Amino acid sequence: MIRWWGWGRCGSMSPDRVADAVGGAVAERSRGGVWEEYGETGVTALYGPGPRPGLVTVAVAAQGGPPVRLGGVELVGRVPSEVYADLHGLARREAVTVRVSRGGDPRATVWGLSLGAGQEWEVMPGGYRQRTDRVLTNALFTAPGLAADPCGAEPVRRWRQDRRPEPDTGAG
Q: How far apart are CA 37 and CA 163, in angstroms?
């Protein structure tokens, strides 16, 4: 279980405190310390600039990420159309606006929430991974200063750029 205590004070959680919150999971760190990916937990922590970086964004993977609920709505690892319908229902009840990003994903700025969708994979006999025909929701939670355009924020752009796979040039 992941304990995100201190999340209300975004920018105040240091990488050491984040490591404690994810139960001491081992992180893959980016060069420059912009992000730390805790692969076994499905969580990635992104940090703001400065000599003492603080947590500004948390990304939760569609598969392998922890359960994340907002007002009783399970956000991660579900079929996108179901999550979007439930999220819009919650937003109406809470009088919150949910907008759609340039990529067509729902975003609730007041909650610092941006949803996306990721490919579902299954592990086949023999240990190799194979895509399924489903997509599942993932989530990006940001500090208030980044909530209006989380994907345009420097830590998120850098993380996405760093994760972009090398092109497959085929057999040589």
A: 10
DSSP state of 19: H
Per-residue pLDDT of the chain (172 residues; tens, 9 = 90+): 344 434 444 556 888 888 888 887 878 888 777 888 888 888 999 988 766 778 899 999 998 888 899 999 999 999 999 999 999 999 999 999 999 887 788 889 999 999 999 888 888 898 888 888 889 999 999 988 888 888 888 888 888 888 766 555 555 4
In whole angstroms, give the CA distance from residue 157 to residue 106.
18
User: Global pTM?
Assistant: 0.81
Helices (H), the chain: 15-21, 80-94, 154-163
Q: What phi, psi does 121 have (nearest 5°)?
A: -125, 150
- CA–CA separation, 153 vs 150, rounded Å? 5
The one-letter amino acid code at 27 reads A
Q: Check: CB of residue 118 under 8 Å from CB of residue 135.
A: yes
Alpha helices in 22-153 (DSSP H): 80-94
